[in-house]
TrEMBL record:
Transmembrane segments: 25-43
Pfam families tied to this protein: Peptidase_M16
Name of the protein: Peptidase M16 N-terminal domain-containing protein
Natural source organism: Hibiscus syriacus (Rose of Sharon)
Keywords: Membrane, Transmembrane, Transmembrane helix
Gene3D superfamilies attached to this UniProt entry: Calcium-transporting ATPase, transmembrane domain (1.20.1110.10)
Lineage of the organism: Eukaryota, Viridiplantae, Streptophyta, Embryophyta, Tracheophyta
Peptidase M16 N-terminal domain sequence ranges: 42-84
Amino acid sequence: MGSIRDSMLRTDDKVTPLKQKWDEFGTFFAKAIAGICVLVWIVNIGHFRDPAHGGILLERMAFKSTTNRSQLHVVREVEAIGGHKLIH
């Protein structure tokens, strides 16, 4: 058991040209995707409060899309699990 661990500790992580190119591509790709997401968000920021697009998103997710519970019922459930402590 000890010899396997020792041999694993002795291995060197060599940075090959292929690994270096993949790392560069991964970094570029992550930055490109993040930039696209920010751009889409900025372009659509005017629609966040537009009633035609659902109004305030959080309110819509929490209350308008629930068919089985009213807004008061949801508030009581959150308070029952200690949601009121998050505000203070």
